Input
Amino acid sequence: RHWVENIRDWCISRQLWWGHQIPAWYLASESTGNLNDNQVFVGATAEDALAEARKITGRNDLQLTDLRQDEDVLDTWFSSWLWPISVFDGWKNKEELDYYYPTSVLVTGWDIIFLWVARMIMAGYEWQGQKPFKSVYFTGMVRDKQRRKMSKQLGNSPDALALIDQFGADGVRYGIMASAPAGGDILFDEKLCELGRNFCNKVWNALRLVKSWQVDPSLPHDDGRAIAILWMKSRLSEVDTELRRHYQQFRLSEGVTSLYSFVWDDFCSVFLEVIKPAYGEASDQKSYDATLELFEEICKLLHPFMPFITEEIWHQLRPRTGGDDCMMSLISATVGEADPKVLEVFEHILTVKSAVLELRNQHQLSPKETMVLVFPSEPELITLWNTPGAEAVLHKLANATCAEGIGTGVTFLAGKYQYHAVLTIEVDKEAELKRMNEELAYYQGFVLSVDKKLSNEKFVANAHPDVVEKERQKKADGESKIEQLQKSITQLN
Output
């Protein structure tokens, strides 16, 4: 509204050699050929202007050669502002215009908001009686490392074809898109494209791994792989929901970044590690088929961002008939809703796995040595580790086993729960006490900061109930960790 209510006149013509020539004709002097600027004849065509000139001057002997058209052209935006109408041949094909107008989204740069966007809106209301588009997405400007706008004059524009040769079309496409928050400028760096190429390589190597498996239909489908498939379907459902939300808000960089994290961390680093057969062994048919189906769904989600490699992977995953292309495939409804219980179980397993890997690094333990973990007799933990396949997944990812009991080894926290790791080496008691006391001090400070926020009446009164509840949960989790750490310190002393 501000743009269209604070309009200023703009120059209608420009002295250029291209563009829409101004539809104005002048009568040329018979003797000198100079134009008589005092008389102007306007028409859609030269013939219309000639008829107008004969009528005004009363000279029916005038010919087209007696008229000279204005050499200036209309301002660039004079024709561009009609784009939403003229692109559908709106002046001639009313049926087509009524079908497509108004359009959904205009994608453009913020630097031509007034030059183009506002004028299209004005033209839309003038000739169609309604706005020409429902939403406008303003892309960021691509700048160099010194924040200068890229231009031919400065010579700071990268060679797009050279970048594609070096990093691949999808690598360049992904790298730029992942680094372009809605409306924010991009400080171009070739490392962005390198990031995209590395991601393409990761997805391609995942395909090579899956296609290298031998399949034995007679093999049973074990619980560890079964729960991993359920978890991956739940995560896929979560990511699909999140991605749709990002699309609705035009947050493409957040969408592709969430996909990156899901594919790299969840699918490649966790799921394929659990599902893949041991060296020299074959995969069971059910696990293999589920992996292909999940890979196909991932290709569909990635396709708008990385169309070339996903289409190639799609056709290599299994034989296809003509027209069965990734580009034409809808996101499958068979993935189903996310299972909160499976997600909770897997989240805890991955937390324990990270703690085990940290312990191995801390005490220089070989990954080939199975680590024995002991957890307290808490109902939630007992239920969690009694879930079919849970311990098998932990063993596959971290080479660790889990059992209920009273532990005497090195303690660590996984979420709000305390575990003991039974180690075969002598533990430095002083170092462990120092580590746990530092961790205790951190959580005490954390709980204190959350408590201050919750003690603020304005915050509790004005914040959304979900936000307040989340802060209360943070405090409860922090207090649980403090209690567990204090027990561990007392026990070690």
In short: The chain has 19 helices and 15 strands. The mean pLDDT is 87. The radius of gyration is 34 Å.
